[in-house]
């Protein structure tokens, strides 16, 4: 019986051919090989510092949540690289559980109080609820690991639902624009993920089994737009002495620009 650490012990194997470019890296393009055009998982190592740097005003006010979730996103990058390098059972679970815990931490810190279930009276109680749910989900994830990634992808639908609810209450056109771009990246990302999972034969026929590495980059792009939105709504809900303003780096006028939140001392807008 192969060890849970051994190469190819995971029941998941992505479309990219194994060991085609290296004897030690199973899926070269899906791993974080920092060569031009092979960025893939490296996007997670860029995402966190970019998030912390651009939103430094917010970070001064809410350092712990932002540093904590950024660190977890780096863990996602490390474990995902390890998974694609080895395609091992342990690699798969580390990859998926780091995503689960990063999402759980983000929900615990930033889930708006107005959407708390009625029985939850404070954020402290909500922390406990998320903690218990995440610990239970962690145990459940060992039962049928092949389903974990599907379950995690479903969380994106809940995030889309929350985005829609928040957009209805907000008339800042920058928020709407950022949300639209986030959704565009996510649609491209999930299409790539599904193509790699379900249409591998076709991908190999057209000689392009690299959709999963595109997923890594596209989902990181989507998060790059998602994070400032989360911050924007958090400032609106939880920091009444500040007014959030979405800005774009390097400049508003660039066709592709990264959003971030600036804080102004004022009253609420939406
Ligand atoms: C102010 C900051 C707020 C941050 C909140 C967001 C926290 C997000 C935490 C983690 C998401 C990381 C997802 C990246 C996965 C990369 C690893 C990977 O590719 N793993 C695959 C195997 O290698 C595995 O099959 C993938 C499983 C599915 C993961 C699905 C995650 C859903 C994330 C939702 C992102 C929302 C973006 C916008 C939604 C409209
Ligand atoms: Ca493969
Ligand atoms: Zn991956």
From TrEMBL:
Recorded superkingdom: Eukaryota
Enzyme Commission number: 3.5.1.-
Keywords from the named record: Calcium, Hydrolase, Lipid metabolism, Membrane, Metal-binding, Sphingolipid metabolism, Transmembrane, Transmembrane helix, Zinc
Chain ranges passing through the membrane: 35-54, 66-85, 97-114, 126-143, 149-167, 179-195, 215-235
Pfam family, one: Ceramidase
Ligand binding (Ca(2+)): 13-14, 16, 18, 27
Main location as per UniProt: membrane
Cofactor(s), names only, from the UniProt record: Zn(2+)
Molecular function terms, GO-annotated: metal ion binding; N-acylsphingosine amidohydrolase activity
InterPro entries cross-referenced by the UniProt entry: ACER
Subcellular location(s) of the protein: Membrane
Membrane-protein topology: Multi-pass membrane protein
Gene Ontology BP term (one): sphingosine biosynthetic process
Function: Hydrolyzes the sphingolipid ceramide into sphingosine and free fatty acid.
Family: Belongs to the alkaline ceramidase family.
Protein's recorded name: Alkaline ceramidase
Organism in which the protein naturally occurs: Tinamus guttatus
